[in-house]
From TrEMBL:
Name of the protein: GDP-mannose pyrophosphatase
Organism of origin: Granulicella tundricola (strain ATCC BAA-1859 / DSM 23138 / MP5ACTX9)
Swiss-Prot/TrEMBL cofactor(s): Mg(2+)
Catalysis performed (reactions): GDP-alpha-D-mannose + H2O = alpha-D-mannose 1-phosphate + GMP + 2 H(+)
PROSITE patterns named among the record's database cross-references: NUDIX
Pfam families cross-referenced by the UniProt entry: NUDIX
Coiled coil: none
SUPFAM superfamilies on file: Nudix
Amino acid sequence: MSIKTVSSREVYRNAWTRVREDVIERANGVRGIYGVVDKDPACIVIPLERTAEGEFVTLVEQYRYTVLRRAFEFPQGGWETADVVAEELARGELREETGLIAERMTELAALQIAYGVLNQRQHVFLAEGLTQGEAELEPEEHDLTVHRVSVREFEEMLLDGRVVDNCTASAWGVYLVWRGRQRG
């Protein structure tokens, strides 16, 4: 290991996030400090429909305080507990935010979100065979809206700045690689 933890102390905690400050020592003996944000596992879901009219994805749009703007993204989130079954979490977040129920869920990957600062694993799921149910929004999602868009429009949104969420972009990239391998 090229970095050793000398000491660690929690400097902040709430229901969603823990922040710690670690004193570290590098292999060359130089010490430093790392600020680390720890969060419980999360998921992101690509709700994909194939119809006679084409392929469509479902996005949610909500106000993201950290960037002071509304943003489009795939349904995603966590349950603020370390002990989650990834598929149950993905099904729950999909239903909660969009009302969609998936016949098939395929886990495509498990990625780390912004691992230069954040320690949070995010499971990437493809949801297919979708049927509409009732959304069950949490209080902080009061302004969330749901949008069904063509894959072509979604990809335009990635390029023109309407979708700026790196998790949504990376999930789509993982899906494209997975799809390419499925086709041989």
